[in-house]
Amino acid sequence: MYNLRRELMMRHQVVCRIVVLGVLFSLTGTRLPAQKVEVSYDHNASFKHYKTYAWGKNKLVSRQRKEVADQIEKTIEASADQDLHRKGFVRDDAKPDFYIAYSAGALPDSKTGIPTTVVPLGPNGALYGAIPGVSLDVWLEVEGALRFQVEDAAHNTVVWESLTTKKVKNTKKFLNNLQSEIDKLIAKGLEKFPPKQ
After folding, report:
1. Could you write out the DSSP letters of every residue in 10-70?
2. Could you tell me which residues come within 8 angstroms of residue 146 by beta carbon, excluding any fewer than 6 positions away?
3. What is the pLDDT of residue 141?
4. How does pLDDT run across 172-185, given as a tens digit for each residue?
5. What is the predicted pLDDT for the residue at 170?
6. Fold category of 33-189 in CATH
7. Are 89 and 54 spatial neighbours (Cβ–Cβ below 8 Å)?
8. Domain map of the chain by residue range?
9. pLDDT tens, position by position, 118-146
10. Regarding beta strands 117-120 and 157-168, do their DSSP bridges make them parallel or antiparallel, or are they unpaired?
11. Distance (Å, whole) CA 47 – CA 137
């Protein structure tokens, strides 16, 4: 009984903090950056020779139902395929010049100071967070993260990487507009691939 009462009080505090944060942002007119992209690459890699690619192992960390998570994964891969094809790359699972893989997930808004359980999203530390006992639909805002890594097939080394983060104020709206939202993230995340040398 005591644990249940404590858990309900914690949920109430979480919801109150999130609502207060949302009201403060709307009153102050503070605009959050739509997307942020960080890119790094091996300046010694020869990107000019890349013509073909294949998918490596992708990772989506999500609290969505399996069928929704599957749809998100398919949408990310299909959108990235289109972007790479527009740039002249051909998918060749048998003889790729490079492998591309993504890690994606969401982190609750860090400004609330709410403690979270974090799970690594990729080898270089992007994180996914979950508030124990609080469902995703009470989060007013989450920060989505999408990391791409390109690995040279001949040398098995990562030669290019991008991390795109985006504040999502309404997760239901994001899912309802999944294709266009993913297309925007992919366009930003792969915008500087291959790098100009």
Report:
1. HHHHHHHHHHHHHHHHHHHTPPPPSEEEEEEE-TTS-GGG--EEEE---EE---S-HHHHH
2. 76, 102, 103, 104, 163, 164, 165, 166, 185, 186, 189
3. 63
4. 787 788 888 899 99
5. 72
6. Double Stranded RNA Binding Domain (3.30.160)
7. no
8. 33-189
9. 334 444 444 444 444 444 444 456 678 89
10. unpaired
11. 42
Residue 191 sits at the vertex; the CA angle it makes with 107 and 104, to the nearest 5 degrees, is 25
Q: Is 120 within 8 Å of 127 (Cβ atoms)? A: yes
pLDDT at 93 over 80: yes
Q: Are 103 and 144 in contact (CB under 8 A)?
A: no
pLDDT digits (tens, 9 = 90+) for 67-92: 888 888 999 999 999 999 999 999 99
Q: Report phi then psi at 145, rounded to 5.
A: -130, 135
The pLDDT score that the predictor gives to residue 34 is: 62
DSSP class of 124: T
Is 115 in contact with 61 (CB distance < 8 Å)? Answer: no
pTM confidence score: 0.67
* Residue 162: half-sphere exposure toward Cβ, Cα within 13 Å: 19
Contact 86, 47 (CB under 8 A): no
Point out which residues pair with 148 in neighbouring strands: 102, 162
Q: How high is the pLDDT of residue 9?
A: 44
Question: Which of 83, 60, 89 lies closest to 72 in space, CA to CA?
Answer: 60
| Alpha helical stretches, state H, 50-168 | 66-86
Q: Strand pairing partners for 36?
A: 165
Question: For residues 171 and 65, is the Cβ–Cβ distance under 8 A?
Answer: no
